[in-house]
Amino acid sequence: MKIGILESGLLNERLSDRYDPYPVMFASLLNLAEQDLEFQTYSVIRGEMPKSTDDCDGWLITGSRHGAYEKLDWMLVLEDFIRDLYRQSLPLVGICFGHQIIAQALGGEVIKSEKGWGIGLHSYEISNPQDWMVETPQQVRIYAFHQDQVSVLPAMASVFSSSEFCPYAGLSYGDSIISVQAHPEFEEDYELALIDMYGGNIVPEPVTKEARDKMQASEYKADTRMLADWITTFFLKRARR
Q1: pLDDT in tens, 173-228
Q2: Which of the following is catalytic: 122, 166, 185, 191?
Q3: How far apart are CA 74 and CA 47, in angstroms?
Q4: Contact, 39 vs 234, CB < 8 A?
Q5: What is the pLDDT of residues 75-113, one digit of tens each?
Q6: What class does CATH assign to 2-238?
Q7: Up-side HSE of residue 113: CA atoms within 13 Å toward CB?
Q8: What is the three-state SS of the chain?
Q9: Does the annotation count 185 as an active-site position?
Q10: Crossing angle for the helix pair 188-198 and 205-217, nearest 10 degrees?
Q11: Among this protein's residues, is 99 annotated catalytic?
Q12: With bands split at pLDDT 50, 70 and 90, how would you rate the model's confidence at 239?
């Protein structure tokens, strides 16, 4: 199965020599599920788009430092592509910015939340189990790093996970699209690197200190393998045969 990764964000240059770019992070994540997957990256942030929605069997939109509400030219093209995928019932997964721009493209709204920054290891309640969830725990833990949130749901969206901080943390659109606000592709080291880099300037220091302290004190880790199984199972169940 061939997954098209739509690269919507680039690593900060201060981290790019230490960490893989986002498409490689996602390929590494999904390969944890030990499925026979092939990946192709399209750097949409640089203006590179697929020629057709049929170029790959499934699609994934990465995170980004940009806000979906910025309405940059490449975002408008991406929104058109999202709507084409939805009309054709082709499988699509959105992560963070991907989660937000899918909602916006399909009639929802995205804002810079008054709740501020959500960073560190967050827990989300699973309120609506899906058929692609290999396991169905009451909650899932994923690394988060965002201030923007989906504020208004598209009419066709359903919530499958949420938290007090992020009510629309996981969304599904019929049988063909799923998205999550947090970052299953992040490893602990990268999350901590983001916290250290942005703490005290973009993100208030008390927020980063609390997130760092909780991560270091917690006995829990991110449910990375579970999310890898979920996403790959979703793709395999929804792919056209």
Answers
A1: 999 999 999 999 999 999 999 999 999 899 999 999 999 999 988 888 999 999 99
A2: 185
A3: 6
A4: no
A5: 999 999 999 999 999 999 999 999 999 999 999 999 999
A6: alpha beta
A7: 19
A8: CEEEEECCCCCCCCCCCCCCCHHHHHHHHHHCCCCCCEEEEECHHHCCCCCCCCCCCEEEECCCCCCHHHCCHHHHHHHHHHHHHHHCCCCEEEECHHHHHHHHHCCCEEEECCCCCEEEEEEEEECCCCCCCCCCCCEEEEEEEECEEEEECCCCEEEEEECCCCCCCEEEECCCEEEECCECCCCHHHHHHHHHHHECCCECHHHHHHHHHHHHHCCCCCCHHHHHHHHHHHHHHHCCC
A9: yes
A10: 160
A11: no
A12: confident
**What is the CA 1 to chain-centroid distance, rounded?**
20
Residue 238 tokens, joined = 């929804």
Catalytic residue among 56, 66, 96, 99: 96
| Tokens of residue 227, six digits | 């999310």
Whole-angstrom distance, CA of residue 147 vs CA of residue 161: 18
Please state the pTM of the whole predicted model: 0.96
Residue from 7, 166, 183, 191 carrying the catalytic annotation: 183
Q: Which residue type is seen at 11?
A: L
Which residues, other chains included, contact 202 with Cβ-Cβ below 8 Å and sequence gap of 6+? Answer: none
DSSP letter, residue 199: B
Token pair of 28 as six digits: 């590494």
Q: Is the dihedral of CA 223, 142, 195, 18 positive or negative?
A: positive
